[in-house]
Amino acid sequence: MGMSHTQALQEKHTKLDARLHDEMSRPVPDSATIQTLKKQKLMLKQEISQG
């Protein structure tokens, strides 16, 4: 269970990274969306590092 849970978290992190990149590539990026995505990525990264 541990490895598949970690893999799922890493997959979510990768998807958030892609969404963040897409948002930043827009002509007028939404700063609130960017901030939210960055916070979500950070929380996932912390959860991944905790095991």
UniProtKB/TrEMBL annotation:
Biased segments, Basic and acidic residues type: 10-25
Gene3D superfamilies documented for this protein: 6.10.280.50
InterPro entries (UniProt xref): DUF465, DUF465_sf
Span list, region Disordered: 1-35
The protein's name in its UniProt record: DUF465 domain-containing protein
Organism: Paraurantiacibacter namhicola
Lineage, highest ranks first: Bacteria, Pseudomonadati, Pseudomonadota, Alphaproteobacteria, Sphingomonadales
